Amino acid sequence: MRGFRLIDSSAWLLYFFGQGKDVTAIIDGNGILLTASISLYEVKRKLLNVKEAQDKISSVLEFIKARSLIISADRGICEAAADISLRFGLAAVDSLIYATAFLNDAELVTADNDFRGIKGVRMV
Predict the structure, then answer these.
(1) Residue 85: what are its φ and ψ, rounded to 5°?
(2) What is the C-alpha separation between 45 and 69, in angstroms, rounded?
(3) Percentage of the chain surpassing pLDDT 90?
(4) Which pLDDT score is estimated for 2?
(5) Domain encompassing residue 64
(6) Domain count within the chain
(7) Which of 7, 15, 36, 82 could, after both became Cys, cross-link 100 (CB 3.0–4.6 A)?
(8) What distance in Å separates the CA atoms of residue 100 and residue 108, rounded to the nearest whole number?
(9) What CATH code is carried by the domain that includes residue 105?
């Protein structure tokens, strides 16, 4: 790995809700962060369901886009995600996120237990 970290939507949400000191240290640190474009969907969808957060959605999404490089799911990521889904039993979105991290030589930073025990994943 090149020292990149891909921040999963679950980790971003921990950060914004002030619930994870490990993820806060990573996001506020000096490292190069990546975010799978589909994580923007997941973060926004979650925040739309939290009444207290609805007025902050735009600023949260802008922060994510400013703090990390957004990686879109191209053909290579989509094809790798299909293999990853079958290999690890991951749902489509999780497979796309893991494939994005894997193909960009990035450590996946997540709080999602579906990734537990998979190589290249850091649980926070």
Answers:
(1) -60, -45
(2) 20
(3) 90
(4) 64
(5) 4-123
(6) 1
(7) 36
(8) 9
(9) 3.40.50.1010
Tokens of 51: 């009444």
Structure tokens that stand for 114 in this block:
């579906």
Report the length, in residues, of the chain. Answer: 124
Which residues are within 8 A (CB) of 29 and not within 5 positions of it... i.e. 6 or more apart? none
Q: Give the Cα separation of 95 and 17 in Å (integer).
A: 25
* Residue 8 and residue 118 in contact, taking contact as beta carbons nearer than 8 Å: no
pTM above 0.90, yes or no: yes
Instruction: Tell me the C-alpha distance between 48 and 114, whole Å.
Output: 23
What DSSP designation does 49 have? Answer: T
Coil, strand or helix at 35: strand
12-26 as b/e: b if 16+ CB within 10 A: bbbbbeeebeebeeb
State mean pLDDT over 20-32: 94
pLDDT average, residue stretch 75-79: 98
**pLDDT number for residue 3:** 84
